[in-house]
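tool_call: predict_structure(chain=1)
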Amino acid sequence: MMSATAKLISGYQRFRNEYYPKNKENLLKLSEDGQSPKVVIIACSDSRVDPTLILDCDPGELFVIRNVANLVPPCEDNDNDNFHGTSAALEFAVTKLNVESIIVLGHTQCGGIKALMDNSNEDIHSSFIAKWMQQLEHVRDVINNSQQYTDQTSRYDCCEKKGIQQSLENLMTFPWVAERVKSGTLTLHGWRYNLKTSELCALDNTSGQFSKVS
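tool_result:
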């Protein structure tokens, strides 16, 4: 059986022999002119959710930021001791690349959301994941205390959606995002991908509901 890394090398060879010759002109143009994507996708690190595959995009079309549970943290003081990988990538895309849209792309069966919902009493210092997911602790607590959700699957579903909504709210805490949104040069979107059905749903900011994209 071919090892995982050997499979990657084989894939690279196919890329060099098949994809690269057919798309050489565009790839060289990207190399010479630099990138100029119009859209930022903030997606989950989940290996099953590849934005460029789902959205059928070519190299250079999307600026993709991936992390556990596709979360955008609130804007924080840069003088503290934390590192801000997601915020740094976002700042570059907005202020240097001048993207036109930011899309928070969530998905069903999110492992980060599941870990948050299943381990409500975990010490936040016990793992990097727990500390990262602490951003949604108040969302989890509201869901768990609600009588509306009768099973854990519905709680996962709700938290995944609420996580997208909170990330959109957190985006507006960054001054260079808020300024561009208010001026009309930048738009924010919340999308959610269903792993089982491949359906893509978009958040309606007025109703707060997700509707299937047709």
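agent: The first strand starts at residue 39 and ends at 44. Proceeding to next step.
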